[in-house]
Design brief:
The chain is mostly helical and 207 residues long. It has helices at 2-19, 23-47, 67-74, 84-88, 94-113, 125-138, 140-143, 148-159, 196-206.
Amino acid sequence: MTNNFSQKKPLIKRIWYALLPPPFWRFPVIILLGIMVGLGLMIVKISKAYSYMSNSPMACVNCHVMVPQYTTLRNSSHKNAATCNDCHVPHDNIFETYFFKASDGLRHSYMFTLRLEPQVIVIKEAGKRAVQNNCIRCHENQIHPVSLRAIKDAHTLASGERFCWDCHREVPHGRVNSLASTPYARAPLPEEPLPNWLQKLFNNNKN
């Protein structure tokens, strides 16, 4: 055991010294690494990237592209029953869930950063499958009870000929899907309508 360790130690040292910059470059490299880490942390804070780990619909309007979808959801029958992730993310297992969120989020940020988003956002094929499966997952009682209507609905879904929203066209975002469909919507809403200085003034007057 000791012999093996002594044989591995020089190899680790060789790798370490191979990666270590020459003494003259160490300080500039440390400065550059610090700048890169600082910029990375600032981007994470400004973009609120950490919010994508949550289930809050507010994460979907960080880049302001999904304002029509966010606004129409808040005014739909699904407002108190589902979040964006409940419909648009697979729920088969946790690995698939977060892989889908990561790949979809990277594509969305790439499109928005380069201003490549279309005027009418169209759901991709993988997104269609996720939404369809989640419709069935939540509304299983309407599809699988023993009744003529349920048998017909189950047959239609199993054939793959139609999606749920082919009939339920208003659910949940309505028929108009362009970025200009909700011109007067404000999303996200201000957390505090009063500025800080005015709030402090009111608090001082109360005391």
